[in-house]
Amino acid sequence: MGVSFDQGPIGIAGAGRVAQALGRLLRERGEPVVAVASRTLDHARAAAAFIGNVDAVSYSSLTVRATRVLIAISDDALPLVAATLAESGMNHGAALHTCGARGPEALAVLAANGVSCASLHPLQTVASPEQGVAALPGCAFGITGEGPAADWAERIAALLGGRALRISPEKRPLYHAAAVMAGNYVVALIDAAAMLMGAAGIQEEEALAALAPLVTASCANALGLGPMRALTGPVERGDVETVSMHRDAMAAAVSPSVRELYRAAGLHALEIARRRGLSEANARRLEELLRKSVDYHV
To answer: pTM score > 0.70 for this model?
Structure first.
């Protein structure tokens, strides 16, 4: 008997953090990952060593070895890699890409060749291949597409004990913006808080250690109780004087990006406080203060 489509050999297109982590996780769960490809063989060899027991090949050679291809590369490289796979003869099987903001239309050149295409975006931050192996199991995956490729994406999510989120193509940018807010921008907020601590005379390492329990508890409360119940602090209390003190102190102490981040986050916190029942009089005073421009020149 021949090998069915859903058991066909898998190739990983890309040698970055997500590619390595997913390749290793799939291989460890018994999936037939046979090869990994990158722009250079050196990068492919390094990824192959991490994934384990797979070959390092070029993109143009990947389709000879695999009927299913998982494309885990940067968004801007996706069109070129998809075109290379198509030009190399990929005209059946399935292809998935892991980009967050795009759906299967990003693989249109492969779909035109007869390849089933879908997108599979892990809703998780991957700072290193090792951290990705630890963090990806159990995370949610944003899936867009239909047919065998989408079925394969659902299988990957299930293999990793994750949650499959079905996202329509036109909503994909909104889904990815949410991911950026919850992941990348949390990092930006923590960096801004550490910079403010630095302006108060506290070194970064000590500042991050001091902030860690606060950040951890705030995230746990927001996710467990919901943002409205979890919100605390001067905006939630309608404390105009304290917010004004913050604003004035930051004027000469930190960069414009930190000040604008404080103001933007404060305005959204104010919307949560309004939903929570903050009096409109206090809310208007806070909004006026947060929206008011300041001469930050020292």
So the answer is: yes
